[in-house]
Specification:
alpha/beta, globular, 199 residues
Length: 199
Amino acid sequence: MLELSLYPDLIEAGCDEAGRGCLAGPVFAAAVILPKGFECEALNDSKQLSEKERYTLRPLIEKEAVTWAVGIVDHEEIDKINILNASFLAMQRAVACLKTRPQHLLIDGNRFKPFEDIPHTCVVKGDSKLLPIAAASVLAKTYRDDYMISLHQEYPLYDWDHNKGYPTKKHRAAIKEHGVTPYHRLSFNLTERQLKLNF
């Protein structure tokens, strides 16, 4: 069972991102403040849930949350500031849009750039330990998936409705055959490196 908070006396926002390892599209992040006493046995790290489970949980999270928000950093910004900084920025943008100001941030992962004067705690695998981070992971993942499915209509050859921009064999093969789209992250290794050296 996931815990609701680290510091029960504080208003805590859970933060997580989606799309960090993708070759195309933005990185999305969400910030969620859950009410005291919130319980949901079905809620877990979005990677442990099926697509159907994530989309079932999203409206429940949005209805029950004290406040929630999504932040986005696009592929061009990612190329300028790198994906790690882009992940931090997306989370900061989400926190900035919350209707209630949190007193403490729960960050999934091991690093974060402080946002304004709000204290934070980084929690490795936080999305499988703390409900607010798990809720944020579901929102970030589903909103990013929706976005990549919409881009698929524009560029159907890259299989984004299935791979969501992640580096699958089909995605890399499409890049090799058709080149990059305006949504690809040019700072990323877009085609597979040689597996061995030829002498």
